[in-house]
């Protein structure tokens, strides 16, 4: 009694197209082998299975094999007396400069045809009306894709070679390389370039004032985090260009196996609101994910008035501490790659990058630090670290610096140029105790405590040693602590979840970082006057 809709193509695009079979979308779907069109025989069998007196609309993505095999099946079905129409989706906007008889490829934009024509058919409209609606949608969609790695067909080599730090624009869904290769760019620039294809007047011709629906599609290997970032940049671009997005769909709609990439499919809506109404028509198709209506980027949170944050002041300078900070920055930045590599073996691979991020903030704010009070100096460092150094390391250093600042106030605050070795020892002791209390690790658990605890003992047991000897002993204790962590079994942090044999002879990156700044401090004490 109602018009049937079918679509299909090669396998490897899940959830397309089987995931869109349901009331209000497709009546059936047919699949070939991976990236290979189904045979005309299979397509004809599906047409005959689902087609009643109302007829059938066959939706085809514009690939040569699909057009041929679906076309053969349509002609045979007509010969058998079936009412059948065929609509070709050619929504790729990245091939406008290509002189090819094949024409633009059919990509994720075909799902707009599934949804809108399917909703029309579900409401009982005749085949010619459903066909006309499908043609209208086909003329109103455009897609552009990008990938940072190829897909890998089962049992085969990667579909193409892409060097590290490169990306391909104009990517398809069958593992073929793109039309433009360039060095990696940030997400904002990537989205800008995708919209430059979609705005080309030879294609969709997206322009100021348009009203649209958009699918931000995961090509198979893109994380949810990355998808969220892409969506944010898409919304920013639309707002900047005064284009109203009435529905934004974000998710895995049509893949190229596990390709690490995304595509943007844009549907220009009609002013009457018919297309939007059909998009919102209910469907039982299991993999059609509802969109977000008129998405907006929320304003950023402002800091609550009661939260104390570092505010640059008219500083009282201190050459020694400023030089010490500069040495610490340089030493740690020189270890970023090594720390990340160690952390890839024992954690999530970002130890060095996390440290580099907070050092960038510290470098920008060092000139505004107030050195008139040692407790104030430590508090300022704690505030900056707390705000800009995430993860466990950021929390532990914040706890340690906060505890040290509290110890200064207990012992009697003083200007930075009056700080004594005794006070420094007390500060390190308080910091270590706080880290042990809240971090739940002890010396011997393969953490930065395996550096800081030995250094603290050296300072406590050698109060009368001359400065040269003391700094040498502290530096040696730090290095020895790092070496010991390579032989220890991790009992804290992410490294504790890893098989023991995988972390044998691997020093703890947190301990390496701690030893690096301890030795930078020792170097300052040795080279500059300090008593």
Provide an overview of this structure.
With 531 residues, the protein is an alpha/beta fold. Helices cover 44% and strands 13% of the residues. It is built from 16 helices and 11 strands. The protein has helices at 40-50, 64-79, 110-122, 127-139, 187-198, 224-240, 274-279, 319-333, 336-346, 351-365, 374-388, 391-411, 421-439, 449-461, 467-485, 509-527, and strands spanning 4-11, 28-34, 56-61, 84-89, 141-149, 166-169, 180-183, 211-218, 244-251, 260-268, 292-293. The strands form 2 sheets. It has a 7-stranded mixed beta sheet with strand order 7-6-5-10-8-9-11. Strands 2-1-3-4 form a 4-stranded parallel beta sheet, sandwiched between helices. Helix 14 packs parallel to helix 16 (509-527) and helix 15 packs antiparallel against helix 16. The longest helix is centred in the C-terminal third of the chain and has 21 residues, at 391-411.
Instruction: Give Rg in angstroms.
Output: 31 Å
Tally of individual helices = 16
Biggest sheet: strand arrangement:
7-6-5-10-8-9-11
Average of the residue pLDDT scores:
91
For the largest beta-sheet, the strand count, sense and barrel status come to: 7 strands, mixed
Strand segment tally: 11
What is the global morphology? elongated
Structural class: alpha/beta
Q: How would you spell out the order of helices and strands? A: EEHEHEHHEEEHEHEEHEHHHHHHHHH
pLDDT < 50 stretches = none
Spatial separation of the terminal alpha carbons: 95 Å
Strand proportion = 5-15%
Helix coverage percent: 40-55%
């Amino acid at each position: 009694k109602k018009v049937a809709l079918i679509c299909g193509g090669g396998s490897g695009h899940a959830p397309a197209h089987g995931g869109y079979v349901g009331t209000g979308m497709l009546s059936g779907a047919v699949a070939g082998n991976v990236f290979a069109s189904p045979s005309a025989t299979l397509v004809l069998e599906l047409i005959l299975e689902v087609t009643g007196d109302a007829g059938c609309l066959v939706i085809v993505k514009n690939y040569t094999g699909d057009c041929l095999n679906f076309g053969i099946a349509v002609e045979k079905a007509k010969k058998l007396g079936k009412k059948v129409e065929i609509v070709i989706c050619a929504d790729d906007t990245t091939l406008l400069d290509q002189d090819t008889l094949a024409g633009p490829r059919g990509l994720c934009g075909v799902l707009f045809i599934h949804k809108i024509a399917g909703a029309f058919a579900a409401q009982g409209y005749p085949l010619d009306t459903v066909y006309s609606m499908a043609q209208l949608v086909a003329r109103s969609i455009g897609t552009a894709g990008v990938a940072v790695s190829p897909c890998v067909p089962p049992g085969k080599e990667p579909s193409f070679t892409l060097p590290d730090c490169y990306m391909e624009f104009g990517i398809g869904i069958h593992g073929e390389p793109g039309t433009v290769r360039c060095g990696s760019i940030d997400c904002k620039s990537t989205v800008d370039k995708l919209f430059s294809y979609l705005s080309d007047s030879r294609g969709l011709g997206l322009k100021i004032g348009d009203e649209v629906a958009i699918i931000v599609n995961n090509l198979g290997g893109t994380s949810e985090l990355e998808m969220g970032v892409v969506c944010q940049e898409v919304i920013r671009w639309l707002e900047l260009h005064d284009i109203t997005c009435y529905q934004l769909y974000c998710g895995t709609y049509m893949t190229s196996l596990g390709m690490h990439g995304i595509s943007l499919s844009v549907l220009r809506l009609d002013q009457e609101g018919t297309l939007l109404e059909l998009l919102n028509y209910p469907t039982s198709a299991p993999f059609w994910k509802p969109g977000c209506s008129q998405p907006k980027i929320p304003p950023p949170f402002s800091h609550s008035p009661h939260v104390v944050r570092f505010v640059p002041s008219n500083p009282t300078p201190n050459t020694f501490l400023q030089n010490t900070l500069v040495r610490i920055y340089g030493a740690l930045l020189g270890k970023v790659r090594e720390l990340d590599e160690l952390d890839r073996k024992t954690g999530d691979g970002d130890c060095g990058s996390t440290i580099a991020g907070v050092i960038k903030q510290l470098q920008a704010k060092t000139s505004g630090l107030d050195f008139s009070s040692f407790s104030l100096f430590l508090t300022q460092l704690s505030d900056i670290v707390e705000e800009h150094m995430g993860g466990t390391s950021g929390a532990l250093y914040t706890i340690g610096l906060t505890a040290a600042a509290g110890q200064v106030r207990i012992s009697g605050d003083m200007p930075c140029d009056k700080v004594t070795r005794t006070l420094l020892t007390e500060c390190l002791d308080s910091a270590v105790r706080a880290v042990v209390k809240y971090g739940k690790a002890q010396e011997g658990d393969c953490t930065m405590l395996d550096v800081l605890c030995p250094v603290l003992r050296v300072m406590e047991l050698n109060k009368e040693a001359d400065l040269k000897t003391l700094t040498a002993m502290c530096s040696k204790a730090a290095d020895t602590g790092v070496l010991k962590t390579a032989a220890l079994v991790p009992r804290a942090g992410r490294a504790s979840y890893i098989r023991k044999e995988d972390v044998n002879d691997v020093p703890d990156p947190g301990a390496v970082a701690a030893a690096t700044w301890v030795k930078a401090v020792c170097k300052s004490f040795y080279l500059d006057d300090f008593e």
